[in-house]
């Protein structure tokens, strides 16, 4: 299959850094990279345009990364809970998806999209989960998610998790 060359306008995980000329499949470029303005086709005109605008593009990227870093610091200890119906064995009737997590984070006061929630597979059982939220291609933050049958059970899971983390920190401090 034929590949096309594009110039990256922002860092993309597993592809490259700003300014890298990479070869990708035409569909990926046409359906994702180009419409989202993540890349430009690697033509002579676009190469010249990129070189002329390189400092501005890098400055804008640094600014958005700094903004994402500030938000990540605020979200660092964020714990969210979801109440779901489940069987006696803890299996959910349905699942928790990226969209559900994004809505819960929004309710906590942070604006994110479902696309920023890095959830490899839907959550299908009760328990505590660390969910990664990508605020910027270079900035991610882990959010604690409690999936429980009731609000009280969710609060209990979160407090037990915090207690366990404190015990682990104390144990690590003693070892050093």
- Low-confidence segments: none
The residue-averaged pLDDT reads 86
**Tally of strands:** 9
Strand order of the largest sheet: 4-9-8-6
How much helical structure, as a percent, in the residues? Answer: 40-55%
Q: Radius of gyration, Cα only, in angstroms?
A: 21 Å
Return the CATH topology of the largest domain: Ribosomal Protein L9, domain 2
CATH homologous superfamily assignment of the largest domain? Ribosomal protein L9, C-terminal domain
Please report the number of helical segments. 4
Oligomer: single chain
Structural class: alpha+beta
Overall outline: elongated
Under CATH at level 1, the class of the largest domain stands as Alpha Beta
Strand content: 25-35%
The major sheet is characterized as: 4 strands, mixed
Topology as a string of helices (H) and strands (E): EEHEHEEHEEEEH
Number of domain units: 2
Q: Separation of termini?
A: 54 Å
If you had to describe this structure to a student in words, what would you say it looks like?
This protein is of the alpha+beta class and 176 residues long. The chain has 2 domains: 4-72, Ribosomal Protein L9, domain 1, CATH 3.40.5; 76-175, Ribosomal protein L9, C-terminal domain (Ribosomal Protein L9, domain 2). Helices cover 43% and strands 27% of the residues. The protein has helices at 26-33, 44-75, 98-107, 151-175; strands at residues 4-8, 21-24, 39-41, 79-83, 91-96, 117-118, 123-125, 127-136, 139-148. A 4-stranded mixed sheet has the order 4-9-8-6. Strands 2-1-3 form a 3-stranded antiparallel sheet. A two-stranded antiparallel sheet has the order 5-7. The termini are far apart. The model has no long low-confidence stretch (mean pLDDT 86).
């Amino acid at each position: 299959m034929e590949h096309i060359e594009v110039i990256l306008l922002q860092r993309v995980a597993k592809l490259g850094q700003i300014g890298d000329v990479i070869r990708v499949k035409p569909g990926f470029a046409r359906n994702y990279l180009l419409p989202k303005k993540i890349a430009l086709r690697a033509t002579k005109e676009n190469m010249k345009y990129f070189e002329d605008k390189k400092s501005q593009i890098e400055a804008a990227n640094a600014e958005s990364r700094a903004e994402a870093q500030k938000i990540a610091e605020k979200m660092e200890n964020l714990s969210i809970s979801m109440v779901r119906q489940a069987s006696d064995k803890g299996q959910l009737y349905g699942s928790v998806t990226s969209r559900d997590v994004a809505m819960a984070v929004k309710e906590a006061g942070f604006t994110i999209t479902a696309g920023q929630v890095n959830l490899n597979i839907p959550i299908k059982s009760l328990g505590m989960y660390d969910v990664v939220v990508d605020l910027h291609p270079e900035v991610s933050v882990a959010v604690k998610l409690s999936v429980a049958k009731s609000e009280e059970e969710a609060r209990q899971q979160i407090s037990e998790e915090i207690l366990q983390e404190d015990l682990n920190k104390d144990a690590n401090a003693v070892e050093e």
